[in-house]
C-alpha cells in the first residue's frame, strides 16, 4: 500500500454524501457547484462524483462567501484571486530564500 496517497490533497476520495457531511452542506449544493463548473470532482468508473480534500476546501470557502452575500460568480472570482495570491506569496518566499543563499556566498548582494 502506498501511504503517500493519504497525504495527496488532490486524490479524489470522498463521495458526494461524505463531502456534504464533512462540510455540513446539502448534496445539491455540491452538485450545483459541479454543474456551474466551479468545483468539478472526478468521476468514478460508475460515474459517481469523487471529491478531493482540496476541492472540499474550495467548496467550503465558496459556501462561506455565498453566506456573506456574494453571488456564485463573485465568490468564485474571490476564491481564484485568493489562490493566486497564495501562489504568489509562496513564490516570493522561495525567491527570497534563493536570494538569501546567493548573498551568503559572497557576503553581499548579487553582483558585488
The percent range for strand residues is: under 5%
CATH architecture: Orthogonal Bundle
Based on Cα principal axes, name the global outline. flat
The low-pLDDT segments are none
So how many helices?
5
The strand order across the widest sheet is 1-2
Protein structure class: mainly alpha
Give the SSE map:
Blueprint: H1 4-7, H2 16-23, H3 27-35, E1 42-43, E2 49-50, H4 53-67, H5 72-106
Antiparallel strand pairs: 1-2
Features:
flat; coiled coil; mainly alpha; MerR_fam; single chain; 63% helix; 2 strands; DNA-bd_dom_put_sf; Helix-turn-helix domain-containing protein; two-stranded antiparallel sheet
In short:
It holds the Pfam family MerR_1. With 112 residues, this protein is mainly α.
